[in-house]
């Protein structure tokens, strides 16, 4: 179990964790959450999408919500049921206006080396929602996506 | 974890990546190894890359822009469908150059051109 995380499994399909606002804490917690999800039979293709989106959400929480301050705490809750995987991440920051975030320049291409995280999360997950002024993000992935 | 193996046949360097290109040590490893190459043409082979995040995509854009600024070439080869999908989601397929056959045949064609 990662040092930076305190884990409490309250039910078989729910995992609650905390991590410090430190980039070094992201990978162990991401891997712990992905292990929990994969143990519950989520398909590999969906698991990769979830892993990338989870990585972006955790990094945003550390860098923007905690200003990379290890004294700050991020709370994560993961729920896996027969229909969906739902991840809620809450950071102690002031939040942001998610609607104001754009990922591309006027010609549709972002040529900087940052600013793609929210775009990726929106593309990979079925639902991405913000609450508490943007300091809490909810990621949801359906386990049985409907055919297009 | 990311492992990078470099094969050089000037003016081409081919970097074979294996693992994931994500924020942190992995992205910094690729940035340092790519940045240290003197060759004008660089091919990054992504066949063994199973995951990439926004920081990894940003790094590829950074390397592309650096090559353009220095009148060089930067090409991606053998990206998995998963990685290609992430590039499509971020509109990078229209910017980055893909060529699954890219590599030392470029240098060979140069040699042929020079000896012709």
Tell me what the structure shows:
The complex is a heterodimer of chains A (148) and B (116). Chain A has 148 residues and is of the alpha+beta class. Chain A contains three helices and six strands; from the N terminus they run E-E-H-H-E-E-H-E-E. A six-stranded antiparallel sheet of chain A has the order 1-2-3-4-6-5, with helices on one face. The N and C termini of chain A lie far apart (40 Å). The model of chain A has no long low-confidence stretch (mean pLDDT 85). Chain B is α/β, with parallel strands linked by helices and 116 residues long. Chain B is 41% helix and 32% strand. A five-stranded mixed sheet of chain B has the order 1-2-3-4-5. In chain B, a hairpin with a 2-residue loop joins strand 1 and strand 2. The interface between A and B is medium-sized, with 26 and 23 residues.
Which helices and strands occur, and which strands form pairs?
The complex is a heterodimer of chains A (148) and B (116).
Chain A: E1 6-11, E2 14-20, H1 23-39, H2 44-65, E3 73-80, E4 84-90, H3 117-124, E5 127-131, E6 136-142
Antiparallel strand pairs in A: 1-2, 2-3, 3-4, 4-6, 5-6
Helix pairs in contact in A: 1-2, 2-3
Chain B: E1 2-9, E2 12-21, H1 25-35, E3 41-52, H2 54-69, E4 73-77, H3 81-89, E5 97-98, H4 104-115
Parallel strand pairs in B: 2-3, 3-4, 4-5
Antiparallel strand pairs in B: 1-2
Give the tags.
heterodimer; A: 148 residues; alpha+beta; Heat Shock Protein 90; 6-stranded antiparallel β-sheet; 3 helices; 6 strands; 32% helix; globular; B: 116 residues; alpha/beta; Transcription Regulator spoIIAA; 5-stranded mixed β-sheet; disordered C terminus
Which stretches of chain A of 5+ consecutive residues score pLDDT under 50? none
Distance between the termini of chain A: 40 Å
CATH superfamily of chain B, by name, is STAS domain
Report the major sheet of chain A: 6 strands, antiparallel
Helical element count of chain B? 4
Mean pLDDT reading of chain A: 85
Given helix and strand content, the structural type of chain B is alpha/beta
**CATH fold label of chain B:** Transcription Regulator spoIIAA
Strand content of chain B: 25-35%
């Amino acid at each position: 179990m990662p040092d930076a995380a305190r884990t409490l499994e309250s039910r078989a399909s729910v995992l609650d964790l905390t991590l410090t606002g430190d980039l070094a804490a992201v990978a162990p917690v991401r891997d712990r959450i992905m292990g929990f999800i994969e143990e519950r039979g989520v398909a590999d293709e969906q698991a990769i999408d979830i892993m990338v989106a989870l990585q972006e959400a955790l990094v945003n929480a550390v860098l923007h919500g905690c200003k990379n301050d290890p004294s700050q705490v991020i709370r994560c809750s993961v729920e896996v049921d027969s229909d969906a995987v739902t991840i809620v991440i809450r950071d102690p920051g002031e939040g942001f206006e998610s609607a104001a975030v754009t990922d591309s320049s006027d010609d549709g291409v972002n040529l900087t080396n940052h600013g793609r995280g929210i775009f990726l999360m929106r593309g990979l997950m079925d639902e991405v929602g913000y609450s508490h002024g943007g300091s809490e993000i909810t990621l949801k992935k359906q386990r049985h996506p409907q055919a297009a | 974890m990311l492992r990078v193996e470099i094969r050089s046949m000037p003016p081409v360097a081919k970097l074979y990546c294996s693992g994931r290109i994500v924020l942190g040590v992995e992205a910094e490893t690729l940035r340092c190894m790519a940045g240290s190459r003197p060759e004008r043409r660089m091919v990054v082979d992504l066949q063994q890359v199973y995951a990439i995040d926004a920081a990894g995509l940003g790094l590829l854009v950074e390397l592309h822009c650096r090559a353009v600024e220095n009148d060089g070439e930067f090409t991606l080869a053998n990206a998995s469908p998963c990685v290609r999908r992430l590039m499509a989601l971020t509109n990078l397929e229209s910017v980055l150059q893909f060529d699954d056959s890219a590599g030392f045949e470029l240098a060979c064609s140069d040699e042929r051109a020079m000896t012709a």
